[in-house]
Write a structure and sequence with these properties.
single chain; TIM Barrel; 8-stranded parallel β-sheet
Length: 332
């Protein structure tokens, strides 16, 4: 499929950016399985999210199991996603690897098949300093200038704090247009130092607070929950847009505690740091429990997690599905 004629810009980053897992066939947790991806489920999920109204789709990050897929699996999944989307929404492929050269090779393939950009984290064999991190994104942008970049800013995964000087410098890279972001406490600061050249994507349940900070600029968010049923994600997006225009946040002030009550089950004692030790296992358990998408088993070696943590993840998935049912019945 041909790429869009022009590279996406910060102005194209709007609405709900859904992230999907890489669904696995039943034998996906067995190291003997040569192709573990359920491609029919990939196609079904991409179509379902687009039809529900999401604004973009990202994949092959942490719970997308980018670290445990073979290149052949990644390559074929990229192709299925791009072909299924058929230009209806931007597709951002995860090409995080252990080094710059391999990342560029994978991103060039994504470019050739018609993907729009990449959700890209830092190589994580050793800790990297700010000059090295900035140079990494400069090198990728120089090598594949047609592709937009969403920086995957997960400090636990990449052993990098993504400090203020980093954002001030990567804002000079035209390809860097957005960021998968979790630090709502520093959102305003990092938006300012990047001179609004980067539209930060806060986590789904932080979108309300972000929009209240700056309704004209904070107009997008990343969603790990859309693949547990996209209706509530779209409702949140549209309700925030409505509230920024009307000034009436009462509906969202009622919705937020219900969302937090559900999603709190996903995080074990120890908070985000402990959650990050089992991110893949807990997220896939949540998605499978929600029932909207079949994420399947986890790929080795990240296949085990404490049962109480898994039970919390199942509660989060079931709770999100329950909220979606309430929404459909007009009870939210």
């Amino acid at each position: 499929m041909a790429r869009r004629q022009d590279r996406l810009t910060v102005d194209d980053v709007q609405g709900a950016w859904a992230i999907i897992p890489t669904p696995a066939i039943p034998s996906g947790s067995d190291w003997r399985t040569e192709d573990s991806v359920d491609y029919d489920e990939v196609e079904k999920a991409v179509s379902g999210l687009i039809e529900a109204g999401v604004d973009a789709i990202m994949c092959q990050g942490t719970f997308g199991e980018g670290a445990t897929l073979t290149w052949e699996e990644k390559r074929k999944m990229m192709e299925v996603m791009v072909e299924t989307a058929a230009g209806r929404v931007p597709i951002f492929i995860g090409v995080t690897t252990m080094n710059t050269r391999e990342t560029i090779l994978q991103l060039k393939h994504a470019r050739e098949i018609g993907a729009d950009g990449t959700m890209l984290g830092l190589p994580m064999w050793q800790e990297i300093d700010v000059p090295g991190a900035v140079q990494f994104y400069k090198d990728v942008a120089e090598a594949v200038p047609e592709m937009a970049i969403c920086i995957y800013a997960n400090p636990e995964a990449f052993k990098f704090s993504f400090p203020t000087p980093f954002w001030a410098q990567v804002a000079d890279i035209p390809q860097v247009i957005t960021c998968k972001y979790i630090n709502i406490a520093q959102l305003h600061l990092h938006t300012m130092v990047s001179r609004k050249q980067i539209r930060f994507l806060p986590l789904e349940f932080d979108h309300i607070d972000a929009a209240k900070m700056d309704p004209d600029f904070h107009t997008a968010f990343w969603s790990p929950c859309a693949c547990t049923g996209p209706e509530l994600t779209i409702y949140l997006r549209d309700s925030v847009k409505e509230a920024t225009q009307s000034g009436d946040w009462s509906k969202l002030d009622d919705l937020f505690p219900q969302m937090i009550h559900v999603l709190a089950n996903l995080f074990p004692p120890g908070g985000f740091a402990e959650f990050s030790r089992y991110n893949i296992q807990l997220e896939k358990e949540r998605i499978n429990a929600g029932g909207w998408m079949k994420a399947g088993p986890c790929r080795p070696p990240y296949t085990s997690a404490p049962e109480p943590y898994l039970e919390g993840a199942r509660k989060a998935g079931n709770g999100w599905a329950d909220l979606n049912e309430k929404l459909k019945k007009g009870m939210l």
